[in-house]
Amino acid sequence: MNATTAEPASAPVPEDALRRVLAGERPARPGPLLTSLTFGWRALLKIKHVPEQLVDVTMFPIMFTLMFTYLFGGALAGSTQEYLQFLLPGILVQANVMITMNTGITLNTDIQKGVFDRFRSLPVWRPSPLVGALLGDLVRYSIGSAIVIMLGLVLGFRPEGGAVGVVLSVVLLLVFSFCLSWLWTMLSLILRTPNSVAGVSLMVMFPLTFVSNIFVDPKTMPGWLQGVVEVNPITHLATVVRGLMHGSVPAGEIGWVLVSSALLVAVFGPITMVLYRNKK
Amino acid sequence: MGTFAIETRGLKKSFGTTHAVAGVDLAVSVGGVYGVLGPNGAGKTTTIRMLATLLRPDAGEAQVLGYDVVRDARAVRSRVGLTGQFASVDEDLTGVENLLLLARLLGYSRRRGRERATDLLDAFGLAEAADRQVKKYSGGMRRRIDIAASLVVTPELIFLDEPTTGLDPRSRNQVWEFVRGMVAEGTTVLLTTQYLDEADQLADRIAVIDHGKVIAEGSSGQLKASVGAGSLHVRLRAPEQRAEAERVLAGVLEVPAEPSADPAALSARISDPERVARSLAELSRSGIDVTEFALGQPSLDEVFLTLTGHAAEETPEEDAA
Lengths: 280, 321
Ligand SMILES: Nc1ncnc2c1ncn2[C@@H]1O[C@H](COP(=O)(O)OP(=O)(O)OP(=O)(O)O)[C@@H](O)[C@H]1O
Ligand SMILES: [Mg+2]
Hints:
The complex is a heterodimer of chains A (280) and B (321). Chain A has eleven helices and no strands. Chain A has 280 residues and is an all-alpha fold. With 321 residues, chain B is an alpha/beta fold. In chain B, the strands form three sheets. Chain B has a six-stranded mixed sheet, sandwiched between helices. A four-stranded antiparallel sheet of chain B has the order 2-1-4-5. Chain B has a four-stranded antiparallel sheet with strand order 12-13-11-14, covered by helices on one side. The radius of gyration of chain B is 23 Å and the shape is elongated. The chains are: A mainly alpha (280), B alpha/beta (321). The interface between A and B is large, with 47 and 58 residues.
């Protein structure tokens, strides 16, 4: 036979080894937290082996920050420096929300593969593969946030809230992103291909981020649109991030963000799980 | 019940208008290998996915190791291992990472998990490939890591969906050895295959399925017996004499002789083995040179042909895995 293959000509089956392996013990089942974290570890391993995955979390933030600052800064706020103070927290929100979209696309590709059958056939807490994937994504979101903030600092953004304000706002942002991801997770289970997930996600994403107070003060908008902006959770998130970064603590708005985060999980989490359980 | 590893009654699953599984009854005893044999699209994978709790049956019931696959899905999941038809490990991760991931998920400590992963890689001859991404494995290595991944916690029952499709003969033999090894250690194996000789070689009992239905069940010997005494296979020196040979054989054997795929070969079912010698003598008397002949138990090919009216091999190969 072909002797040039790299495959070691593994000898007759090592029977003793097989016997030893089959006499394995039966360890106690781990809890939901540990299995979710283990799936999170898998996500990190995938980043390690396929670092190309990080393109979106590095490119989106850089692109957005530069584009919006220099494109709109002069027109909207008179100067780019001033606009940056207003815009950067918003860009942070926008970039993060954009990055969450990729969660759905990645998951859709992943779920098509045979390995998900194996995961689903394991006696572990059923949502843990999905929760783990989302936990792994928190690392991606953090990288994205760090890039936006660093770039902002370089361009002249000066948060009055200091390091504490910045860190707090990023934490809240991560909480919201994690919860919003369940929307994409659901979509990734409904739609057939990664492309359609991307398409539908964009259709949700654009109104969600643009019809908000991220880029402009809603006072400049017609009344009905202001109404829409007002109920958009992204608006509240942007207000909170802006507030914290600039040294105020908008308690009411923080409550709003936490409630909408909880609602997102409460609505899309169970739908996702039902879809996941009945996935063919 | 209780004595069966798997018991199903009227199991059904449709996808739209495709009746992938159209009422399957199985009774698989504990221990040994149970083979599910069928061509592409017969419903093998769909059946296994229902038994492994991945798909909910539309109708019917299934008990695996005494647990209902719908009501006690979790109990089933903790006792069975599944090796899917297609890549059932994460191809981006290395071999050892895949096994460690599963070991952690199944409750091993980090240290014990690593030992377990190493033991499995050793047992499956993959020690050298431990730190290579699975996507860089050869087909045979991939199948072995797939199977190893199902053994992280020793299952009482393991499902192997077409474990040797696309493997070269050596890798295939290796997989067979592992299957025999597992059985010797007391694991029950349900394997699906499109290869008749694989079922013949490995399985204690075989269910032949076609279009989502079990069309025959029994030991390999029983299935063969239900078809007849066997066949005479003859290969001629001159292919152009085949038509004449067909006539001669049919005359002596009193059954029609059928041309084989090989243009110089033909075969005939035999009812009475005594006539075989006479038929060969008759061929030589008619000036037809025979280069080879064999008297065989009917092959499962013939079983399939008899049972379904079409040969298993006629179905086009859909997946070039
Ligand atoms: N998820 C699905 N959606 C729609 N149709 C499906 C799905 N899964 C299977 N089918 C259809 O059900 C039938 C049985 O498929 P199944 O995969 O069980 O066959 P199989 O015996 O495993 O075939 P193969 O030898 O090719 O693996 C086929 O006609 C297939 O197209
Ligand atoms: Mg199949």
